[in-house]
Specification:
By secondary structure, this protein is mostly helical. It has two domains: 37 residues; 34 residues, no CATH class. It is 61% helix and 0% strand. It is flat and about 45 Å long. 2% of the residues are buried. The mean pLDDT is 82.
Length: 85
Amino acid sequence: MALQQINLRLPVNLINAAKNYAEHFGFKNVQELTAEALREKVMEESEFDETFSKEEILLIEELAKVSIKKGLLGTEEELRKILKS
């Protein structure tokens, strides 16, 4: 996947709030938070994130099913923290 850089101007209070949010919810930085927020908004109506192949989606679904059966899933916050590391 090719990456492209953009510049984004935001009010200071929004940047400060984003920094606090990123730190509190385990994002590496505001850039990572911004990318995730955009991804959620843009992919909101799609059933799957189009950056995953069909095989990857099937693997993720199977992993989720097995994890649910074995009671291995934690809270959403715990899962996000693990996925971000």
